[in-house]
Amino acid sequence: xxxxxxxGGGLVQAGGSLRLSCAASGLTFSSYGMGWxxxxxxxxxxxxxxxxxxxxxxxxxxxxxxxxxxxxxxxxNTVYLQMNNLKxxxxxxxxxxxxxxxxxRYYEGQGTQVTVSP
Length: 118
Known about the structure:
Elements: E1 3-7, E2 10-13, E3 18-25, E4 32-39, E5 47-52, E6 58-60, E7 68-73, E8 78-83, E9 92-100, E10 106-108, E11 112-117
Parallel strand pairs: 2-11
Antiparallel strand pairs: 1-3, 3-8, 4-5, 4-9, 5-6, 7-8, 9-10, 9-11
């Protein structure tokens, strides 16, 4: 059974930092690309904020470039999202997702709340 479990969310003041973790189990980590999405309050669509390949390549949404850093530890089957200089508009539920490189399987975690106060 595949599980993605996020942790590390919380309440922080603007300008602060948080580090999210996503522990994956039940899948071969190197066979998946990983992503961090967020869904802001009142918005129906989720935004892809960071993508990470098993080889370590990363890409970011323009809204978080220079502030967020995605990384992974293949040995621990865990990916991270380091978020610095947080802004109130970063307030959202953050989800990690795994997308199989071949075969099309896709999994998401349950999400972790990040709240940034002014």
